[in-house]
Amino acid sequence: MASRVSCPSPPRLLHCLTLLLLLFSTFHASDAATALVEKVCRQASSYSFCVRSLYSDSRTPEADEYTLAYISVGVAYSNATSTQRYISDQLKSIEVSGSSHRDQQQRLQICSRGYQRAVSALVMAHNDLDSETFFELARLAGKASSGAGDCKAAFKGIPPPTALAKGNQDLMHLCEICGVVATLFSGM
Ligand SMILES: *[C@@H]1O[C@H](CO)[C@@H](O)[C@H](O)[C@H]1NC(C)=O
Predict the structure, then answer these.
(1) Of 29, 60, 76, 108, which sits 20 to 30 A from 50 (CA to CA)?
(2) Integer Cα distance of 5 and 97 in angstroms
(3) Any keyword Signal (predicted)?
(4) Higher pLDDT residue, 95 or 30?
């Protein structure tokens, strides 16, 4: 016999409906981006990376342009600072182990300076948003991205640590997203 739907009595029916609603909203959040996020992410080099990154912030489903600008800068900022932390940890462990990694140390110092520039550019971008200034966002995002680019270039010819390669690439992609978000304000 075909199985019956098991939602007979009114209280259980309510349970079922709640469950369905929960399921629906979960699928909705992971499958469908808002029109605004879609508009932004279509212009990014990786659509899925873009959607995933923006949705790492719980405000994204309700975000307008302005909030999305904060979110994109915030995601890039926290990515940049965690890669920055990784770089300084690596430098510290080289210091502890002596000077046999001179070459690696020099490359990491270039990265350290690059990420310093990147983080301060993103702080500036955040401050600009606080004062509702949007015209600098694209430039500052570009500056942050070039900090990651400098780090990538420092490892030219030899493979960088995997975490660093990913950090550089992620930050460049996240800055690209900030740049696209900036275009939402052009003409304001
Ligand atoms: C950087 O952002 C990407 C995309 O949101 C994420 O997958 C990655 O885990 C982040 N990395 C760090 C170190 O925060």
Answers:
(1) 108
(2) 66
(3) yes
(4) 95
* Of 37, 53, 60, best ligand 1 pocket probe by most atoms within 8 Å of the beta carbon: 53
Task: Output the CA 99–ligand 1 centroid distance in Å.
Answer: 31
Instruction: Name the residue at shortest CA distance from atom 6 of ligand 1.
Output: 53
Query: Which residue in the block uniquely carries the two structure tokens 């808002």?
Result: 34
Residue with the smallest CA separation from ligand 1 atom 14 is: 79
Q: Which of 156, 155, 168, 164 is nearest to 118 (CA)?
A: 168
Spatial distance between the Cα atoms of 12 and 88, rounded to a whole number of angstroms:
56
Give the model confidence (pLDDT) of 2-42 as tens digits: 444 454 455 565 565 555 555 555 444 444 689 999 999 99
The pTM (predicted TM-score) of the whole model is: 0.82
SS (H, E, C) 56-103: CCCCHHHCCHHHHHHHHHHHHHHHHHHHHHHHHHHHHHHHHCCCCCHH
